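ARCHIVE CARD
CATEGORY: sequence design from structure
SOURCE FIELD: tokenized fold
FIELD CONTENT:
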């Protein structure tokens, strides 16, 4: 189905200069594209940053986003990661009610099952770190929600194409 709406995971290699994030997010917003997830960080080259973001839409939306990104001077290269074999991660920190005793033990067991870790312990709650695929992170959130989540923060998705798996979906200037 070429026209079905789905989540596109894009990676843009950009010059690491002030205002790039504002320029790109402003351009996408002004054209009515919603960013579902966004992560930005410096690469192995300190002169470059990688922006990984998720947009929802059909293939024509993806093509429009890519064309608009390629017009921006500070964008070096754009890659549709979702059309490749890739590894993705999302990082979650959350605080959940966990009074000492059996409830805390149940939460600790859930954290272990999801291969996370407790990174801070308070008298009545714990802070948990989970990383993995977006679906794993979401599943963990749903499992601990009944205990009472007091605070939650996520990084947004980051991803890299597996070695030797990059297709012609790459563009460059």
């Amino acid at each position: 189905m070429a026209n079905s709406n789905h989540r596109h995971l894009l990676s843009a290699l950009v010059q690491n200069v002030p205002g790039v994030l504002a320029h790109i997010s402003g351009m996408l917003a002004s054209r009515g594209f919603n960013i579902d997830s966004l992560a930005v960080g410096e690469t192995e080259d300190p002169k470059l940053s990688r922006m990984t973001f998720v947009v929802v839409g059909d293939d024509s939306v993806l093509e429009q986003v890519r064309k608009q990104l390629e017009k921006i001077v500070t964008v070096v290269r754009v890659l549709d990661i979702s059309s490749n074999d890739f590894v993705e991660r999302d990082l979650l920190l959350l605080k959940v009610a966990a009074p000492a005793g059996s409830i805390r033990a149940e939460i600790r067991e859930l954290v272990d099952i999801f291969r996370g870790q407790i990174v801070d312990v308070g008298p009545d709650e714990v802070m948990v770190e989970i990383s993995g695929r977006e679906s794993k992170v979401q599943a963990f959130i749903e499992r601990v929600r009944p205990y009472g989540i007091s605070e939650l923060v996520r990084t947004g998705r980051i991803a890299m194409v597996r070695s030797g798996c990059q297709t012609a979906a790459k563009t460059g200037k």
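CARD ANNOTATION: The helical segments are 20-30, 59-71, 102-113, 134-144. The first strand starts at residue 6 and ends at 15.
SHELF: design records, drawer C
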